[in-house]
Amino acid sequence: EMKVTKFPEGFLWGSASAAYQIEGGWREDGKGITNWDQFVRIPGKTYKATTGDVAVDHYHRYKEDIALMAEMGLKTYRFSVSWARIYPEGRGEVNPKGIEFYENIIDECLKYGIEPMVTIYHWDLPQALVDLYGGWESEEIIEDYVNYAKTLFKAYGSKVKYWITFNEQNIFTSLGWLTAQHPPGKFDDQKTFYQVNHHVFMAHAKAVLAYREMGGTGKIGASFAYTPSYALDCKPENVMSKHDYDELKNFWWMDVYAYGRYPKAAMNYLRKKGFAPVVTKDDQKILKAAAAEIDFMGVNYYQSCVCEYNPMDGVTPYGTMNTTGVKGSAQVLGVPGIYKNPANPYLMTTDWDWSIDPVGLRYCCREITSRYDLPIIISENGLGAFDKKTEDNKIHDEYRIDYLREHLKELGKAIEEGCEVLAYCTWSFTDLLSWLNGYQKRYGFVYVDREEEEGATLDRYKKDSFYWYQDVIKQDGENL
Ligand code: BG6
Questions:
Q1: Is the ipTM reported for this complex over the cut 0.95?
Q2: Of these residues, 115, 308, 380, 410, which one is catalytic?
Q3: Which residues form the active site (predicted)?
Q4: Is 380 near ligand 1, meaning CB less than 6 Å away?
Q5: Ligand 1 atom at minimum distance from 427 CA
Q6: What's the CA gap between 466 and 471, in Å, rounded?
Q7: Is 247 known to be catalytic?
Q8: Distances (CA, A) of 472 to 13, 231, 332
Q9: Which tens digit of pLDDT belongs to each residue from 20-56?
Q10: Model-level pTM?
């Protein structure tokens, strides 16, 4: 008898991580220094000055971690490659030890029938390229990125079927050039911000085309941090502010991936402001060609937002983010003359003031399906929380189970409504370093014994959510 489930056959139940946040081994086996290795050493940049020097030591414990994934029954594991392990200087000589490390990870996954999903760039950039030409600020980086991507395609192309060119281009550029919270730590540099984004788009597009030229038959796309928006109410100026927000904050990226062109009204607005990027005719052709080749839209979904018209003298764009876990310490964000993002009175929030909105995940899927008609990979979704390990080494994270279950129910509805969803990856598998929030903001199914200070055992413990997700996978989501 054939089992008919809501989630399609071969659905990839997964979980995700990123190199800098789990590996550690920051100077090991020839790895070069990255922009993050440098940035975290600037006083005041991260919560309690935490670094990824040791992280959760996945570099030495990957076998133990992947065995836990196998025990759980994971179908896919999404991880990122650290560019500086492959090319310590960003370009030039390949480091064989770096190639070997990820080969080992991939083989270990395949040994258990876990599909490796590789993120080529999850924010850690060889510092040598920053020193040489300013990293993403120079168009020189496009060629270096494509060369690095091709090295990965060549090394792992026969084993890896899922490739993500960039993780959250919108976030690392916004925090890098607008709010100064990520490297290179620039504040309100909108002109550079849009030019940097154009370079990233070109790097993405050329890597996608290179993958096809090399005969790649797997699936390739980018992962976008999608924060869908709701208008505060039916007041027309609030509804228009939602429209403006979407063009500037969502479609600006997704339209380029999916259509190979920038949204018109947003581009006109930026031209008037003097912030529009330089885009050549050739660039346009390449973006269009790559758009025709992508196989999915990758979505990292954590929360939705509300849009309200923002008068010229209203809130400024760069309020303070909550990086401490003290509820209510985040400020309202916006762009004067366009929109602001007040809190949603219908939704609860996490300890870091992120709204909890399962329906928002369905909204993302429906919007992508209707606007782009592309398959979807949910490449991240999860709850950051303060977890406590009991005396008898249990972690009762029922709040995480609730969060994931409600999101999965909405994802199931989206699928029933016609969205083609290939995979769902939770953030994250083990606890790991939250870039700005230290180790106390935990996301994993597997608890790692470590604090902001080094010295704890780094031992792994399965949380209650581990057993819950194990059962979800076993029953293909029928028990949600
Ligand atoms: C995404 C990133 O922005 O969200 C992850 O891709 C990140 O790397 C995750 O850790 C959660 O964000 P945060 O700030 O809570 O760690």
A1: yes
A2: 380
A3: 380 (nucleophile)
A4: yes
A5: 9
A6: 9
A7: no
A8: 9, 34, 37
A9: 999 999 999 999 999 999 999 999 999 999 999 999 9
A10: 0.97
